[in-house]
Amino acid sequence: MYCAELKTLFWIRKQSFLNRYMVSTNKKKFVFMAITTFVVLSLILIMCLRVLIHFKSTPLIGDYLSKQLLSMVYLVVFGMIIFSTINTSLMNLYISKDLEFLHASPIRIDSLFVGRGIISIFDSSWMVLLFLVPILSAYGIAYMPEAHFYVKLILLSLCLVLIGGYTGIIITTLLVSALPAKRVRDVVVILGIVFFIIVYLLFRTMRPEQLVNPDSFTDVADYLSYLSSPYMAALPSRWVVEVLWDSIHGSGRVISIPELLTYNTLLLIFVLSIILSRHLYRLGLFKALEGRGRHQKAGKVLEFLSKIVTVPYPKEMGSILIKDIKLFFRDNTQWTQLLLLGALIFVYIYNFSVLPLHKSPVRMDFLQNTLAFLNLGLTSFIISALGARFVYPSISMEGEGFWLLKSSPLGVKQLVIAKFFFHYMILSALSLLLLTISNVFLNVDKSTMILTSTTVILLTFAIVAIAIGFGCMYPVFRYESLTNVVTGFGAFIYMLFSSILIVLCIVIEAGPLYSIFVKGIGISKEEGVITNLIISVLIVAVICIGSGFYFLRKGILSLENIEDF
Length: 565
Known about the structure:
By secondary structure, the chain is an all-alpha fold. The chain is 80% helix and 0% strand. It has 3 domains: 263 residues, no CATH class; 37 residues, no CATH class; 229 residues, no CATH class. The protein is built from 21 helices and no strands. The chain starts with a helix and ends with a helix.
């Protein structure tokens, strides 16, 4: 009976997936995404294979470097699965709308907890494992291990996924038993920020730059000792790496202590999750129904700040934006991500502040201006990612009440324009802040600062317009979590188009700008380079402004013609 109940839960999940994606998704879109995924995975495979071949050809330290790289990969995978499972299990076990139907069915609560837990682990790990495949394939091609390596690879990777997944489920169960489920969503976001900071600090303490800088050690023995020292030996990810590395070199035929530790840890953590479910799951379900209030003073402060921000807009547009601001800050899973954004900005600027430019053999002024131009591309990609998270779903966030706005005197066009200018003001200010501070650390000249600032303003205009346009063309007004909108097909196409636009604009300006840099240090005497640069900037302006207006217009027409959502 236990297996039959699990089978029923998995069948329901399969049918839900087929109805949501396979039936409603155009076959051309599916083929396009499949081809794009194959190309990306192939590029990852080629890049990893070239790195491993280079490491393998390096005498004495090549194997150590390859092992450290594999350790870093599994550590990141393990951490991502834990945190991702916290999010997915919170939704699947406590907040999902179909739980009312499932708890009213004859399915036992133990079976429901186990089945939905397995589904949560699958949801949180399939994409991570998909990108892990080309990396592990590169190790197989580079080292050509025996057949038993692949057996252990599949078993231990599956064990690591389950250990990380059930760890996340246990954390979620404990949090929900202590707090209301809706409050736990806020805690999870804060934990995510803390997790990101911890991972970054751990990564910095590993000092990966030391792997390729033996000059920082007094002798070869110290360098080899640093490479071979076990890092985080108490983590399951390290146990898996030790077993796989022995199997690569043909000495992992018998079950070793790290392998036994992995299997026993999985069994222990699974049993612990079952015990917790019997004592705490029902309590967590009751707490998931609890609501929460909001402090009145906080509401008044938010009202005051919203009115100040929307002063430049007409009254009707300002009312819509005030509503959006209030909804944004009422949903703590939204506004707490500003903390994560602040952490990302800090890391980004910090990395520029510690660049060892003085050690470069390239002339300083040429290197500074070149890095400033590359910084333009990095900043644009950051703005593109923020557009996917905050700008693209702004139309879908109207929810099923969109028909009220569509039938109101405001109209669709004014709604789209208001959202565009609001997000453009915020992201353009952020892009200028990132670019200016990092350029100050690079100590670039005034002309380069003006050029990069002008370009990033143009690129931000196009990026925000494309995000709004695709958000209008692929709206999702019925969703359980905003994550379903952000990870949809429309968001994928938006990121693809915005990335192509950024690369195209950078390539257009790269040639004339390079000529300027070279002429500035007295290597080139070519005439007309300033004219060529001005022409390239004008071309970039036409491309950005033209593509922005095109996608805005197309998005408005798509929303005006929508009938069923």
